[in-house]
Amino acid sequence: MTRDDLKALVRSIPDFPQPGILFRDVTTLIGDGPGFAAAVAMLSEKALAAEADVIAGIEARGFIFGAAVAARTGLGFVPVRKPGKLPVPALAIDYALEYGTDTLEIDPGAIGEGSRVVLIDDLIATGGTALAATELIRRAGGLVERALFVIDLPDLGGAGRLREAGVTVDWLIDFPGH
């Protein structure tokens, strides 16, 4: 399956979650068995090339792709959670979204000091969520030098913001102009 095949599996929904936003819905790709398997295989190859020790995935769709990559590569998985979901005292960070603010948390004991962490999410837009997750993982002692995404929205500049933070960014497909 090619990257163009994967791109064709992503549904576009206008005016969600608010007017003027063209939402790229990756759930249609996840719902296609061969497409999902191909995306996970491509991401796994990149994670192994980065010599990852552990995979971190951002809630919620980053859990789907990140956990699948961790299982395929035999690496551990660390969930980057929304607030109040962890049963232990958590490290937390507040950050700005494209259309609001939010908080992310991780279990501070989930990442070994100096572990090479590959961060995975379904989509990068402005980069706010990925930058917050990167900062959180670094506070926990992890090294975040690589982030992988299924989709990049290059006109929103998130990949560039991550690169400025010292993270190599890669994605499977992009949607310029949105």
Summary keywords:
178 residues, Rossmann fold, UPRTase/APRTase, two-stranded antiparallel sheet, alpha/beta, AMP binding, five-stranded parallel sheet, purine salvage, 6 helices, glycosyltransferase
Structural class: alpha/beta
Report strand order across the widest sheet. Answer: 4-3-7-8-9
> What amount of the residues lies in strands?
25-35%
Provide the CATH architecture. Answer: 3-Layer(aba) Sandwich
Total number of beta strands: 9
Low-confidence stretches: none
Q: According to CATH, what is the topology?
A: Rossmann fold
User: Biggest sheet, open or closed, and with what strands and sense?
Assistant: 5 strands, parallel
Determine and state the CATH class. Answer: Alpha Beta
The total of helices stands at: 6
Shape: globular
Please state the CA-atom Rg, rounded to the nearest Å: 15 Å
Number of domains: 1
Estimate percent helicity: 25-40%
Mean pLDDT: 95
What quaternary form is this?
A: single chain
Return the string of H and E elements: HEEHHEHEEEEHEHE
